[in-house]
Amino acid sequence: MKDLVFRYLFVLFITIVSAASLYGQIIPAEGSKLNYRLAGLSVPREPGTIAYRFEIAEGYHTNPEVFSRQKMIVENTKENAIITKLPRFGQGYTWRVAYTGKGKTTKISPLYHFETGILPLVDTTRYRLRVIDSATAYKDMLIILDSRVMYDMAGNPVWYLPNIAGVLDDATVTRDLKPTQFGTFTFMKDNRAFEVNYDGAILWEVPQAAVRPDSQANYHHDFTRLSNGNYMIADQEDVAIIDSTGNTSTLKLGTLVEFDTSKKVVWYWRSGSHYLNSDKYRELKGQPSHLNAFYFDEAKKMIYVSFRNTNTIQKISYPSGEIMASYDGDKDSLFKAQHHCRINKKGRMYLFNNNVYKGPGLQHQKPSSVMVLKFSKNNTLRKAWEYTCDIDSQARHVSPGGGSVYELGNGDILCGMGVTSRIFIVPKDKMILWNAVAEWGNNGNWIPYPQYRTAYIRNSEELRRFIFPDLKHR
């Protein structure tokens, strides 16, 4: 019993000391280079202080009087931290804080300094998010593109994922860049996958060692951090195929892998044995099924796995891996080459229907769509709602690759159309709430800048846990 009490008191002591240390930090640290304009500033709490006045000026200043004349941002708050939008990238800044207690200024901090970095990706003369229909209901939302930039709803870049030696350079785009519930971001680059913080520092990387000794690691498409802290990622394995003449070939087929934080494999699922025995395999004449997305319904312990080339979504039980249902998009022509299937709060499936035939034969070019689907008792799907993506002439109506959907709090859906580069928000009544196109400048001409997926952060309150991950309980 005494040992338990001692352990409890020791943990409590460490927690208090750690909290005190965090609250004593000056953020950003002196001389920092920030990869964002949405910046968090924080100073130690001062006993007896009832208000803090944060003052910011452009440029590097050492003279308080000159600084006072140049300050351009002044924010008064009862908290010892703020989140503010700085004017521009590639700029130096000076800041300080005045402490107020009992109606008068009791202390003024020294002058602190930082700068915002810059990359070509946030140069709006070269890359842009062109807003066609401005937001009204979602003015505080932030849009995250695989081109490594976060934009506000007016199309202004406010954050970028910085270069990482050996991983990202000025010209690199990512795949599946998205926020996590832990105040971090996950993304993929080629055969590698990472978790980073708001500053772009690597926190975790998927191990490069093969999960199976007979296959190489070949991560692709989808990488997600789960609510238990583990990581799940799509992988591939090489499967030997022997045809009727005795010739052997190799087929890459999708797998799912779950790692714990120590990079130990805790769960593994193979699609190969199910696919090779299916009619779809025979219909595609030996083509790969192309696993392109998964969604883990952690509460119900079900995983929905999307296969582009077969136009199917499989529902598998976790952790057994047993296939509970296989939903065929070819049935009733529901969907084709779909991406990013998810389950909403009502228990319905929703997805981006690329509506493009993938496999042997000709491609058809019908408009892509956002779909909501109901589950029937006989393990089939039927259409509950659909929005066809023929919005205007500013981008193609059909997307041959990529695409994402996220249901927002009230049922509105944020859709990224993948390689066509259009992003929009559509409600149930189908009256577009916001509409934009990602573009890059090519010798004076603006052309679509292909994305794989589009993610988001809902508002400044949600952003707080990314900027102040260690102070989120303040």
Describe the structure.
The chain has two domains: 2-116, Immunoglobulin-like (Sandwich), CATH 2.60.40.10; 120-467, YVTN repeat-like/Quinoprotein amine dehydrogenase (Methylamine Dehydrogenase, Chain H, 7 Propeller). The longest helix is centred in the first third of the chain and has 22 residues, at 2-23. A hairpin with a 5-residue loop joins β15 and β16 (202-205). The strands form eight sheets. Strands 1, 3, 4, 6, 7 and 8 form a six-stranded mixed beta sheet that branches. Strands 9, 29, 30, 31, 32 and 33 form a six-stranded antiparallel beta sheet that branches. The chain has a four-stranded antiparallel beta sheet with strand order 12-11-10-34. With 474 residues, it is mainly beta. The chain is built from five helices and 34 strands. The model is unreliable at 4-23 (pLDDT under 50).
- Strand percentage lies at 35-45%
Structural class: mainly beta
Mean pLDDT: 90
Please summarize the sheet with the most strands. Answer: 6 strands, mixed
Q: Count the strands?
A: 34
Q: How many domains in all?
A: 2
The amount of helix comes to under 10%
CATH topology of the largest domain: Methylamine Dehydrogenase, Chain H
Q: Nearest-angstrom radius of gyration? A: 25 Å
What would CATH call the architecture of the largest domain?
7 Propeller
Our count of helices gives 5
CATH superfamily of the largest domain: YVTN repeat-like/Quinoprotein amine dehydrogenase
